[in-house]
From TrEMBL:
Pfam families, sorted: Hydrolase
Protein known as: HAD superfamily hydrolase (TIGR01509 family)
Organism: Saccharothrix saharensis
InterPro entries: HAD-like_sf (IPR036412), HAD-SF_hydro_IA (IPR006439), HAD_sf (IPR023214), PGP-like_dom2 (IPR023198)
Transmembrane segments: none
GO-annotated molecular function: hydrolase activity
Amino acid sequence: MFDLDGVLVDSERMWDEVRQAFAARHGGTWTPAATRAMQGMSTPEWATYLVTEVGVRLTPAEVASGVIGEMAERYAEGPPVLPGAVDVVREVASRYPVAIASSSPPVLIKSFLAATDLTDVVPVAISSEQAGAGKPAPDVYLLATSKLGADPTRSAAVEDSTNGLRAALSAGMTVYAVPNPHFPPDPTVLARVTVLRDLSALPAALASRTSG
């Protein structure tokens, strides 16, 4: 199970830039806690957060539409795919069933899969919008494993953020972290997972786990 933002695409900072600029244009006041708080939230959750906590003077539906529209415009120029990410997904998919379990809206997940020619390689791609609660709740991982016909306790997840790691742990999965250098995860959460130097180390880590 691959997270998308921060694992396969370098988009965490893009989300942050777009949300901050959008909030500033619509009467909001950014807080130091806002960036980390929204990492992993589903679209309805972060849209509501921007209204109730940041003070954006729009409805949550208007916030979601505006922010996602701006993100889609950026993705139209080509999603910011991290180096080697597509090759890693293909290598892992050659040995195991794979899925994407992301907090990104479906339109951006589909954009990523189409741009990278991974649509046929990744049979299940779930947004937390479709699962109920966003991360750190385990909903998106539980739905993704269910759609894939997999047992969560026999599955692995790759995450970069504190809330994502907590979500995968709550689902009972084996969890690998590729820590986001711009928004480092909580060290107490990292202590509970296997930390990889980068995503390219994942295939070997999975092979070692399987053989062990």
